Write the structure tokens for this entry.
Amino acid sequence: MDISEKTYKVKQLAKACGFDFCGIARAEKLDEEARRLEKWLSQGMHASMQYMERYFDLRRDPTLLVPGAKSVVTLLKNYYPSATQQHEAPKISKYAYGKDYHEIIRGDLTIFLEQIRLFAGDVQGRGFVDSAPVLERAWANKSGLGWIGKNAMMINKSAGSFYFIATLIIDLELEYDTPLAKDFCGTCTKCIDACPTEAILPGKVVDARKCISYFTIELKDLAIPPSYKNKFDNWLFGCDICNDVCPWNKFSSPHQEESFSPMVEIIDFTKKDWEALTEDAFRKIFKHSPLKRSKFAGIMRNLKFLRD
């Protein structure tokens, strides 16, 4: 089997394993992207997310994650829901409607690598999904899957930005896709204009210190600054504003992943239901949900901030 046939087979397997898009790039250092990250960190825009400072060299060089790595396979998995919440309820980001995507996609990646080994032999590799020092959006761009929008999200021209990004780094040589050189955002500034906390800055930069998603998910054990009162647009966990207003998301279509189907509680809960929620009930209902990242205390803090 030559490289071309192997590449075709890998992309076929990606589809069979439940991924919607697959792109492949040569495993090499991301020097330009590393410089951008270093500047972002030096300006303190990662707020209290100190984990972003760790393993900097690993973020830049995939061969430090997988010795002998030759290919970085980037995979997109749609999470756009077929149903949304009640209009007046505190808002939950769409990516968190179903089960925790980390658990689901890790399983998909494991099966994907096993299937590659069945036809390609002893392939060494590791799969990652949003929990390791990997610059996923940079690799998605290098793999020709999309471009980085003004809101720093990766946008696919045919399907928008409601996608999880997963990465498989392997020591198998494959054919590499052409990076998408053009930025199709043009002069549009809808995401910048719509952000109620002005977190989206020129240059495709998001300042986490102003971001609703940061405050409602990543900010731990601290009060939300009172200066942001009445600016959260009723977001309880995460925020979809910049995605919702993006014209490219008119191409979004409902996903086919059963595990991402909206939980009844998230779709049906009213404000009163959230306020009446006990810690025991929270742990039971959201045991396999992304909401567990904020924990019960964080959700109650966010709810109080919206209510008071």
Q: What stands out?
A: The radius of gyration is 20 Å. Strands lie at 21-26, 71-78, 91-92, 125-128, 147-148, 154-155, 163-170, 200-201, 205-206, 235-237.
